[in-house]
Design a protein that fits this description.
Elements (H helix, E strand, L loop, with lengths): L6 E6 L9 H15 L4 E5 L9 E3 L5 H7 L6 H19 L3 E7 L4 H9 L3 E5 L5 H15 L8 H13 L2 E4 L2 H8 L8 E3 L20 E6 L8 H10 L5 E6 L5 H13 L3 E3 L5 H4 L4 E4 L8 H8 L4 E4 L14 E4 L4 H13 L16
Helix pairs in contact: 3-4, 8-12
Length: about 375
Amino acid sequence: MSKNAPVDVVLSCAAKPFQRGGLSQHLAQLITAEREAGHSVRYFASAIPDGDAEGQVVAVPYERALYRYTPLRFSRRLRDYVGGDLFDRGVARALPPTERFVGFVGKALRSMQTAKVHGAETHLHAANSHVDNLKARHGEAHERYGFDHSWLGEAQRRKTLREYAEADVIWVASDYSRQSFAERGFPESKLRRVVLETDPRYQPPAERTDDGVFRITYCGSVNVGKGVPLLIEAFRALPIERAELILIGGPATRGMRQYLDQQIAADPRIRLAPGDPLPHLHRADAHVHPTYEDGWAYAPAEALACGVPTIVTEDTGMAEIVRDGENGYVVPTGSVDAIVDRLTKLHDSPLAATVRLDEVRTAG
């Protein structure tokens, strides 16, 4: 396929499709759906599978030097904004004629503007709730814990608001996200619901071993906004001696890394385990997603698909698929006591039968 040949749909996301990260899975699902619908497709990403003629890599110019030798190395917030903007500009320059452009929030403003010049309909996927709701929830988290900062800065917020205005359609992955837009005056006609699915490899194990250790997992970005310090605080307050907390992921900032080093040194039952979550989920007794905000989240969905009782907060789209006392619990956002209480319940009275994810997800 010629790089400049017209196509039915162009997709753009600064992730690596067909990999395990949340945005990567989201992009891969969209690409696959468009292909199965018989549409001609071109997509832009940070990496593509070998031999995929429909994909094109958009590299950030001088990325290594920018992030190592300039003031960007001191600020994740600036790195995210500048990197996303450079990716967006690269897509805009390479964009072929298309009937529909599909971008991801925070990295699609210039791409959408260029697509509209060509007469394309513009679609924007919002991985989170409305950016002002996100800002408020992150503000609560960082005011409470103080040693870290949100990746969301004012420049990113302003750009995101402009993307909302530029998009013909905004896609959300949960009623939680949809409501956050509706409360800010967005008409229902502009909002559409995408149903995200977990990888089929997430299945319950043939047999769970029980060595008497109550294992709790968390999976995702290890930061304050995701509620990781809240979970550690709850874990250390648990009245359960033989317990283990496994954080599957890595810290994104120096402040979080220092905090984790201190917590792990103080309590060796806490472990950091980057890599594939599946082996850990197959040994887990409970999964906790203590986030202060999430439009949707693959990690707790994957835990549910593996049959692991899951605790989530009210400020996530996952709250609509967790049923209290059946496959987990929904707790007030920011409540250490509520997490301690529900984990203790799961330890003392394990749920006999979890509700599979495909039994509770419905298209909106």
